[in-house]
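Q: Hi! First time doing this. I have a protein sequence and I read that you can turn it into a structure. Is that right? Here it is:
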Amino acid sequence: MHLNRSTLGKLVVIAVAMFGFGYALVPVYRQICEELGLNVITQKDGTVARPANTQVDKSRTVVVELDGNAQGPWRFRPTQNSVSVHPGELTTVTYEVVNTQGRTVAAQAIPSYAPQSATPYFKKVECFCFKQQTLGPNEARQMPVVFFIDPKLPREVKTITLSYTFFEIGGAVAMKEG
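A: Yes, that's right. Below is the predicted 3D structure, encoded as structure tokens:
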């Protein structure tokens, strides 16, 4: 019996030590990587470092036309009509939405592309369309889309239209508030 308690005690101490080591490992790893300049995501000034893309095709330019359609109680539009990009180049555009109602609404954006053959080459890194948006009464919001065009886009495609339809999700807000 004494041997079982002694073994149990040792196992508990080992388990606690392993938990402590695992818990301490994250900040230690982060500090080591930061000191050595490895795998650093955040600069010392707090800004996010974006790795340089060596796959940019500067020999050609693709025009991305931006369009917004609203199906609901808001104004929805891109803040610019188009942007010229080199394939492989990381680009940010912004869409603006204004809830014109005196109530909270939940909405979702669905993208579409023209020509449709360009769809697999249009790569979004960040987009408001990835999740449902909840807008307060009379709220205005600027929403970014970060994307790049895959350099494998066929050369004959010179223009891509990115269009979003922003529509209300019925009952979603009422369920969250209730």
